[in-house]
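Colleagues,

Please find the record for the four-part complex below.
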Amino acid sequence: MSKKRSTIRDVARRAKVAPITVSRVVNNSGYISTETRQRVEAAIQELNYIPNTLAQSLRHQKTNMVALIVTDITNPFWTTVARGVEDVCNAHNVNVIFCNTDEQQQKLDNYVNLLMQRQIDGLIIVPTEGYAGEMLENMLANHVPSIILDRILPDWHHHTVVRGDSVTGGYILTKHLLDLGHRRIMMLSGSSSVSTGLERAEGYRRALLEYGVTPDPALLRFGKFTQQSGYDITIEMLDRIHPRPTAILTANNFIAVGSQKALDDRGVDIPGEISLATYDDLPAQLNPRPFLTTVIQDPYAMGQEAAQRLITLLTDSSSHPIQDIVLPVRLIIRASTAPPRQT
Amino acid sequence: MSKKRSTIRDVARRAKVAPITVSRVVNNSGYISTETRQRVEAAIQELNYIPNTLAQSLRHQKTNMVALIVTDITNPFWTTVARGVEDVCNAHNVNVIFCNTDEQQQKLDNYVNLLMQRQIDGLIIVPTEGYAGEMLENMLANHVPSIILDRILPDWHHHTVVRGDSVTGGYILTKHLLDLGHRRIMMLSGSSSVSTGLERAEGYRRALLEYGVTPDPALLRFGKFTQQSGYDITIEMLDRIHPRPTAILTANNFIAVGSQKALDDRGVDIPGEISLATYDDLPAQLNPRPFLTTVIQDPYAMGQEAAQRLITLLTDSSSHPIQDIVLPVRLIIRASTAPPRQT
DNA sequence: CTGAAAGCGCTTACAG
DNA sequence: CTGAAAGCGCTTACAG
């Protein structure tokens, strides 16, 4: 049963040529007489020969594989990013390995190590929250081209970063609520050890100040980028803060789902009693009733951009100035935000 | 800049030993004197040495990599399956490559080919709709252990299959609606060239017959497993079929979202005017208001089961009776189904 | 147009 | 406990 697959030597023997000749046929390189080519192709057919990429890669010192490491594969945001990365890479004959860290630094370090062992050509990495491991140095020491995606970390000066404009995103969401007349606006951000969590909160603060509203520390909360976190903080707020805010702003789609659920559970009408606006959308496929006012990044474009940068790094390793690419965001107004009720 | 990574020879030279000795240290195999081990480990540190898995795999004739090929990476059902696969495989020190076909046979064939070239140890495959390519023969000819997931195809007798019990699922969903008193029940299935689409419809038919209801061909429609398909068919039904059905049954989560959206757009109250029940849930993280009555499979368990079977195939290649593993389904009743309105 | 030799980085099988 | 030789499957660089 477990017969061995045929190798280039088997084909060569059968076609009565040297292995290198088979190689030339398979790769369409160099000159081959038509007659020889046909004999070789016949042998390939008969033996079901499939070239061994491991051996090719070992010889070429190049695998044509890159990896994309994200923090949460269950978030459609990241699967859409993955699509963008994959489409660009495939167009360049590069395969993409997709990895998921669950925000755990150890998983990230593990993956990077593993992928370097597998001689990956390049990496696109979303760092885990508060990342402080040694992977970066390691990658530099081993000359692995890489792009950092979505989040910046203090000491990553040596890498090109592709990310959304989180400060502006937080700013225009808050401005939208302020323009509707809200003054008590609560922000549920993600982790304070992730740059996007901090920057979205910073945009919120800037908008408030611009409108002469003094930020109330009780109304800015950091948590996690999860449904549970959004739910818990919203419930806590409803129970403890008086007067309640008239609007809530969440820093990603999962937090928004949790917050909306909490408001529902407590019978709070959206937007009648509290307006709800969020960063990042839910994909239309999963969302029969798009309801939340939202600032969207374009995750597909983000993936494309990151992949394009990486491909450039790989092919043209000379010209790689380190850049900080900041992609634009856009506001979509829906039914979940309205002027505050008159009291 | 693009200095080469260090190899086992570099380490050996530095530690003044033979490469094989370094290999023994790295792999913890054979006896090494403490003193030699320390010298080698120091050299490994200093040179930032990382073993090259390509070379190891080439030598071992084993990559410790398997692949999971699904039809739609944007469906949370499949990302959850992926989790199950990954967790089981990682526990066995096997890495998983995750691939997506978009239901396109050509992409599937491409991936299988590519993965075989990369000397993948095994495959878990969700066949694309109406699959009729040559990949199967190819895989058999090249002795690639594989598991077929979720869907059966006519001539796949040589492979173990892991799938949900679609006939029963369709049956209990329909029975639930019948028990509520519905008699005009419409089924929106997926593709008729996918076994799950056919079997869920078959379950529907059986339940109807059991309750003495003659299946109305106008009320059974095949389409695609997408939101668009669910939307279009529902709109068409609302415009053309009189009297309208009092209940709709959809064959997966995406179709349900489309159908729900269509009913909303036409101002049809669920379940007041039409009850809606579906196969497969939306994940809680994305769903602030779980509303649809649903038959669920356990996608995580499905992934685990498939991975477990594959691992067994890989480690114990002697004992591999071909099996058809059918996993149970379960009904969850929510607010989207109710008795039909009295007329 | 075709091929023999050497080597990519590692490890098996044998020796000592 | 350590090492020299050979080979995994392929391709580069050289020859003819």
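The CA atoms of residues 136 and 156 of chain A lie 8 Å apart.

Comments are welcome before we finalize the supplementary table.
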